[in-house]
Amino acid sequence: MKRNSVNLTWIVVSGAILLLCTQHFGSQYHYFGFGKAMPDAYEAILTCGSDLSGSYPAASRITSCFSGGGINSDTVFEIKNGDEYGLYAAVNVEQLGKRGVDGYSLHIPLKRDFSIRAQNASSDLILNVKVVDLMGQVKFQQSAAKYGLIQIQH
Prior knowledge:
This protein is of the alpha+beta class.
């Protein structure tokens, strides 16, 4: 009976550690199976601005690059992230990730296998997509002006 109580204690302690890790690391970790944490392999950083750096006032949201603004047609953001697939209209793009500390970039966690297709709808702003690994090294970077298309597959 003592061995069973040790195993039960280990399961409870393991669960508590796992819970603390999810609270500490947030959405950076996705779980596959019991107690196996798999970190996201990459992160896509989207900006929409008046230059290639994407530095534009916080009032300009990522949605500005997908919304035609009544003059141009709206475009969509298409993503396959692991086994998940989504097609997002301008008003829904920001649901994909978290706003960066700079106030205007959108950070989307990516699994090892992903593809992104993004087309700029703005005639004035430049859409920028940068993919970095867990160490912050840039693996891909591309910008698109009006109706320019950015496609990434990994």
